[in-house]
Amino acid sequence: MRHNKKRGMKLGTDASHTKAMKKSLVTALLANDRIKTLEPRAKAIRPDVDKVITWAKKGDLHSRRLAIAKVGDKEVVREVFEKAAQGMWADRNGGYTRIMKLGPRKGDGAEVVIMELVTEAVTPKTKAEPKATVTKVTPAPAEEPKAEKPAAEEATAEAEEKAE
């Protein structure tokens, strides 16, 4: 049985430390728009950041209170809700964060990344015209060229026509 076991990444710590770490990382990302952290931590907070931004797009009081509980800082939540009200993520249905890898850390080789909020507008993909399907075409049997009548035969045929 899974009593008192939460899903998600533990990040090498106990549950309370993981919860506090994720809360502070989410707050830092929303306050600064970009943070430098480890790859597993960035992947762990991505769903939380997406939830907060989705609540900000909704904009009602209940969503604001949920966001304050998740982030823990009223000022940061106010800024995020203002950005959403101005239409920063209006055309996006998700994918509010971007993770760019920097490479391994020198001391222990842990993968370091930069995680940032995406601010660019979404460009819809243009549908490529379907490629023409190649059908197997069997070549028509080669027609034999009609043998031309020799000039002597043509002359005799013309002479016969004139005679008649």
Walk me through the structure.
It is a single chain. Helix content is 45%, strand content 12%. The protein has 164 residues and is an alpha+beta fold. It has a domain at 15-117: 50s Ribosomal Protein L17, Chain: A, CATH 3.90.1030.10. It has a 3-stranded antiparallel β-sheet. Helix 3 (61-71) packs across helix 4.
Q: What key attributes describe this structure?
A:
50s Ribosomal Protein L17, Chain: A; 5 helices; 45% helix; 12% strand; three-stranded antiparallel sheet; 3 strands; 164 residues; alpha+beta
Topology:
Blueprint lengths: L14 H18 L1 E5 H20 L2 H11 L2 H12 L11 E8 L6 E7 L33 H13 L1
Antiparallel strand pairs: 1-3, 2-3
Helix pairs in contact: 1-2, 2-3, 2-4, 3-4
Short description:
The protein is of the alpha+beta class and 164 residues long. The chain is built from five helices and three strands; from the N terminus they run αβαααββα. The chain is elongated, with a radius of gyration of 36 Å.
Q: How large is the count of helical segments?
A: 5
Distance between the termini: 113 Å
Mean pLDDT: 85
Largest sheet: 3 strands, antiparallel
State the CATH topology of one domain. Answer: 50s Ribosomal Protein L17, Chain: A
Question: What is the CATH first-level class name of one domain?
Answer: Alpha Beta
Shape: elongated
Range of strand content: 5-15%
Radius of gyration computed on alpha carbons: 36 Å
- H/E element string? HEHHHEEH
Count the strands?
A: 3
What is the CATH H-level superfamily of one domain?
A: Ribosomal protein L17
CATH architecture descriptor text of one domain: Alpha-Beta Complex
Class from secondary-structure proportions: alpha+beta
